[in-house]
Amino acid sequence: MTTTDNKILTSAIETYRRYAGQPTLSDIESCRQDSNDEIVHLTPYFSTMDLVKLEDLTYTRSFTYSLKTRQLLFTSNVTPISKNIVRRLASPDGKYVALVTKETKGEQELQYAQIWHDEHLIFGYEVSDSKISPHGKILPKNDYASFFEWSPDSRRLVFTAEEKRKPLKSYFTADKLDEIGEPASVYRENWGEQMEAFETSVVCIFDLDTKKVQLIENQPNDLYIGQSSWTTNPDELIFVAFRLEPYRLGLIYCENRPSALFKCNWRNNEWKQLTDFDQLCRLFPRHLPKTDNEFVYVQTDIYRAHAQCKRLVLFNTETKQEKILIDRVDNVTYSNADPFRAEWDTQFKGLYMSPPRLGYSSDGRYLLLPSYYVVHEMFLNVVDYRTPFRLYVFDLKSLSKKVKDPNDWYLITEHEFKTEEKNRIEWNVDRFFS
Fold this sequence. Notes:
Elements: H1 3-20, E1 24-32, E2 39-50, E3 55-60, E4 63-66, E5 71-75, E6 79-80, E7 85-90, E8 96-105, E9 108-117, E10 120-126, E11 148-150, E12 156-161, E13 202-207, E14 212-215, E15 223-230, E16 236-243, E17 259-265, E18 270-273, E19 280-287, E20 294-301, E21 311-316, E22 322-326, H2 342-346, E23 366-369, H3 372-380, E24 387-395, E25 410-417
Antiparallel strand pairs: 1-2, 2-3, 2-4, 3-6, 4-5, 7-8, 8-9, 9-10, 11-12, 12-13, 13-14, 15-16, 16-17, 17-18, 19-20, 20-21, 21-22, 23-24, 24-25
GO molecular function, one term: serine-type endopeptidase activity
Organism: Rotaria magnacalcarata
Pfam family, one: APEH_N
């Protein structure tokens, strides 16, 4: 190998190391210190790669921000996240943390669920303990097949888990014959496509007032509950359900399979089907924070393109009436030749991504939605270390107008954050924290 070849190879390796080590934002938690104050706590989670161990790493650091003075008050050190953590979520008021960890003992993988209040462990149990736990293993994070969410009042936690099963013990390790579970060789159908851990799901509620875990009964056996949203009533939730038959493949990458919406009262174990399994796929319900019996969700047509343009629909649970807030955008007309400037950037291309869980403004009037093609721009700009952000806001009060104003969608910010400009950015985000 020549000297020139060595230089090229060395340069390629260094380039790969440099960009492979760039962290990616994988999740974020936010909460206010008090409902009336102006202090916000943000805890982002980042993923990166350890090229020495050849494994993925996750770490976090916390930020405390003052909305009143618009100053960053505190930044914590980087804290690595253990791979044994299955779930972790802070409550909306910031006082509680729900934590699920795992560890392997012999042939078994055990899970432990914990509830922390400040620095005190106030409740915990082993998932395999049949005296306390009515469920099996708590499912890991997945946007389509599991959820782990605190109620808005921070008093209850809803989550999905596997059905309760006997642990897999062989004939030679079991003390009693009734301890022998299903053989490990028995096939259990799962969702496939990087979702092999998801087979069945049951919905559970942890009540902070009673310190008990309750299994919501009467769940339809032929359906898989994959998404949820708390309503303004602390006893009710909205669920998205998928059919288990005739096939399971095509959930994580296919937002074009039939699904239905359900409303559930977890105290009374009452399930009410809101929509049919028709020619529509319904995903990502987000209940309006200040309005009873109404929520928005994302809607697509089944059996069409996997990453098709979506509709944003307002649903009333009392009347079961639907109203399209944002329709599909099938074609975009470009009035200028250059596709990376001016009018091309300001046109709304349609809704392609899911609405964030905390996407409502504090008064419940505004809904923040991300735009899919911004992700494409972020990818293009990695090489020059620029990250553009573009946010569109839909005014929910315009629904009362008889004539809909086409300008209800408007661009509130368009900025490319550069290193030399980071200290003089002016961006009013106060009202967009919910």
